[in-house]
Task: structure prediction
Amino acid sequence: MIKRFFLFTILSLCIVTLQAQINLFINAKVDNIPVLGDTIKVCKDKAIQFDAYGVYTPGVDLIEADSSSFYWYFGDQSSNTGKANDTIQKSYKNGGGYYLIVCVRDTDQIEACARKYIQVSTDPDFEDTKTLPDSIICPGSSFILDGNVKPKEWLYNLPDTIAYDEPKVIDELRFYSGFLQQGVFPLDMQIDSVEMIQSICISMEHSNQKDVELKLTCPSGESIILKEKNAGNDNVFMGTPIDNDLGDVGTAMNYCFSPDPVLGTMTSVSNTSSTLPEGIYTASESFTNLIGCRVVGNWTLEANDNTLTDNGFIFGWSIIFHPDMIPEPKWKFQNSYIKDSCYWYGDSVEIFQVRSQNGSQVNVSSSTLPLDSVNMYNYTFSVKDNFGCRQNEVIIAEVTAANFEVPEGGDAPVDALFEDLTHWAATTTWDFGDMQTGDGDTITHTYTEKGDYKITMTSTDINGCMDTDTATITITFPSSEFDVYNVFTPNGDNVNDLFIVKAKQGADKKLSDLMRYFECYIYNNMGHRVHVIKSAEEAENGWDGNVRENGGKASPGIYYCIIKAKGKDGREYKEAMFFHIFY
Result:
């Protein structure tokens, strides 16, 4: 009996209850094809199917998916949580790397996490993809499409800050809840020291600090009240709010909370301030509340306002972890590009040829057929990367006609300024329509004669492609009509001493500006010619009454003037008129 009892005792002491654990696994499929390994390489917007399953250890029993909760963190600041959601689909809009994490918690609160690394094809550098020589083309010309692709390196940056373009309102009807998702840390890392969190900072404004509660919750559910509500002085501002309850946004201040604070709690500071100053505050609860928190997953900030009056806005917030926690080196990758997969396509593309490849940099040139029509032509340079994703860059080639700016015409003389506006022109020649020519992209030409002149500009590009543009400029003259004095008194009193012919009253030009030629023959009443005016200039200067034969003054009486003239406006004159000389 003693031996049996002793044996029983020994056996009893050797029985140990082992705590069950979960090993969690993720299977992934793209296009229903399994993806092996921990890294999944996909194109943007490509759906990936994830299946999570867990196995208890010791043993081989599968967890009950229907009764377990799955927490999916997709690495792009989106997540999905619920029971029985062990299978899920996800696609990514933007290129880059993402830490996908799923955690499971069964009915006994046993938890495990697993991770996949998602690499989404990044946009390449197409900066040197262009047309040669230029993207604006002479009609009838061909050109080279020069495709160049270089990779851009993607580098992981810890998502520790949210900043909103439009601040989020908090009032009695609208609470704020936002999270920062962490995926880079070890899956089993927990907060085991308050120094692991250096600070939580919130950019905000509110018209009454007493109404506001701020709470931070870690991924595994532990939480800390950063600022309690219904405490401290009433009507103390946070930031610089617009206190009208109309929803107008004020100016934010930055409020931080840290295990190593500079200020007391917001409650205590509010008792001595009308506005809470920016600074590093003591949290209402101890940071030791967060001991045991799982680090990977969603860190959630909540802000609520429990009164009908007053409101505020959250502009953004951050959580700063101790730098020693962050794994090094940072995750980075870049795509490469497959030489034989690169090509051009578009309007009138003739051939394409891969010119060179330098590592993942590819240069592809394509020539085009001549383009005669003035139009916009689209060309696409297409490359395939090492993920099998197509990346395209569109180049627009614009075929434009030669063109120039037509100056206004007007009354001669006109100094007309011509400017070639043709983008592709290398040289420019001009025909001004008056038997005169010139060259240069900008030139001035003077028109002295009335008429409609057809200007022809010829532009030539560096390859010899030519195109012309024409326009008409109209040069005019005012009326050449004139007035003749019918009385003059050449008595030397400086009043009406000259017989003058001048441009018709109201004309803004001299008679000499209006006439091509002008002659005036003056006769006395006996029919003897006493003077000849031989030009418009002489007519403007006037006849002083001196008779040409003897140089004496003409006698008083009636005199006749025979005018023969032609104006620059094309009008011809053959007129006879009389005038009087008095003394």
Notes: The helical segments are 2-14, 266-270, 511-514, 536-541.
